[in-house]
Structure formats: C-alpha cells, structure tokens
C-alpha cells in the first residue's frame, strides 16, 4: 500500500513539474492575454509597429507590452489596459479610449489627436511628454500636477465627437 501511495506521489510531482516546464518555455501558453484580439496574446509582448487601426479591441489587455509606433488610429479601445506599456510614438488619433488604463504607461511622442480619453486612468508615473493632443478629450482623467501643467501648455482644439475643448477637459486655467 505504501509503495502505491509513493508511486502516486511521484507521478503527481512529475506531472506538476512537466506542466510548469511547458508554461515556462512557452509564455503564450501561460495566459491568453484577454480581450477579443483572437487567440493572440497582447499582454507583455513586443508589438512594435503593429497595425491595430480601426479595430474594435474593447477591454483588450496590453499590460507591460511594447507598442512603440503601433497604429491604433480610429480603434475602439474602451476599457483597454495599457498598464506599464510603452506607447512611444504610437498613433492613437481618433481612438475611443474611454475608461482605458494608462497607469505607469509611457505615452511620450504619441499622437492623441481627437482621441476620446473620458474616464481613462493615467495614475502613477504616466508620461505624455511630446505627445500631440489637439482635440483630445481628457474629461475625468486623473493626472499628476506636472503632467496636467505640461499638457495645458500644448492643449488646443475641440474633440469632434464630444464637442469638448481640450483645454477645458484638462481643467487648464
């Protein structure tokens, strides 16, 4: 009886170790990333230059991904997570980013022209330095004081969808 229990215990341990080795060697098997972007993983990936323009990617998970120069022009990204992602030089113009999470994201030199960011999160060390924000709507977006001050210096235009002026949505003086 004890031999049988010992064999079962060894088999169980081997099964767990085998499974962990499979997941460790292929991170794509460890998680599916979330969101509707097919079965492709978009979380923690290098998606530099990828074209997502015009796509509907509601609640898509781009956490910790590298999205430099990615094209999201006109994409519907409601509730998408860009937590700790690198969006340097990304095109987010005309995108619907309501409720998106940009916490800790690098959004420098991005094009946010006419983007709707109503209710998006931009907490922590999120940076919009060098970004184009003409016509962007930042209604109810929590921003650090230094980021709000910087964005107010470059803010202009009116969002074509919401009709809100960028400076007003940033609460510029």
TrEMBL record:
* Gene3D superfamilies linked to this entry: E3 ubiquitin-protein ligase SopA
The answer, when asked if Signal is one of the entry's keywords, is yes
Q: Which spans are transmembrane here?
A: none
Signal sequence: where?
A: 1-30
UniProt keyword terms in alphabetical order: Signal
Checking PANTHER family in the record gives: THYLAKOID LUMENAL 15 KDA PROTEIN 1, CHLOROPLASTIC
Name of the protein described by the UniProt record: Thylakoid lumenal 15 kDa protein 1
Q: Which organism is it from?
A: Forsythia ovata
